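Fold it.
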Amino acid sequence: MHSKLLIHRDIKPDNFLVGLGPKASTIYAIDFGLTKRFKDAKTGQHIQYKNNKNLTGTARYASVNTHLGVEQSRRDDLEGIMYVILYFLRGSLPWQGLPARNKHEKYKRIMECKTSTTIDSLCKGFPSIPLNNATFVLAQLQLLLKYCRGLKFDEEPNYATIKQYIKEIATNNSFEFDCNFDWNNNPAALQKFSNTSKKPENKQQYFLK
């Protein structure tokens, strides 16, 4: 998506879908209602850095800079993906379920919790998961999140390095890159889910592979 000069700006589990049948190994990104160009296709000019922006996207997975009112760029999508990965591994995130009287207070409390939670504490304390080398995995996740948070506003992320980190986590846990996921072995469950899922109101579908 970034190669198309677009940023999603609403990274969350709900916006990723799994294909069916022969495409069961394909993950699709959906819902581009908040998508924005971060660079002009003709001039190559990056969008300008701005402050005092309202929060765009889903607060639970929003980057720290997004909470601080900074214009979003590629780094914010990547930080959001890290929160999604950690959510899957942990089962929840520390800033979920915080009591608040209104949306403004809720966003403020989430921001305070997110900025006060250290990366080290965020990347540990997972439930029991079948990982052979948990220490290595946690160290890699910490490095990834630190890298994403450390990117400059208009800096191009090193996608090859990010992929390498993830690949090292997989290979150190004997995961093969054969595109054979858990759900591939249970097609009946996927079919049942697809039959009971709510059909989209908008007939137009926008998928990026």
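The helical segments are 64-67, 74-90, 103-116, 119-122, 134-150, 159-171, 187-196.
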